[in-house]
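Chain A, query sequence.
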Amino acid sequence: MPRPQLVLAVAAACAALAACAQPSAPPPATAAPAAEPAPPPPPPVTRYDGRYSGTATRTSRASAQCTARTLRATMTVRDGHASLTAGSGRTTPPLEGTVAEDGTLALSSAHANGDGRFARNRFTGQARSGDCTWRLSLAKAAR
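Chain A, predicted structure.
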């Protein structure tokens, strides 16, 4: 076979082989960089930790639910978690919440809620349950 024909025959054979070949797979996608881990939660606010005691004074009108004018109130704060009871504390669950960095506190339970602020070893705020509203005034107990 003359040389130009040989070149043509080899080129035709290569083209035929290329047409029969499977298309090559695309290169694998590169993995996305790992997401940054979420920052850890802030540490609890502990500077208000301790036991507080004082009064819950009714500021709403008396009703079947709110007969007492004043109740003894106690609050325990541990690792920034507050638990408040008023009266005997045996008939209703405590109001609970987490103290914010600025000393504010939102409290809640199944049947009541409240809020207030810590300042100078005291807690002042209010609590609400049904048609009853109470003013809270508590002082931190000495260690």
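The longest strand covers residues 50-58. Residues 4-18 have pLDDT under 50 and may be disordered.
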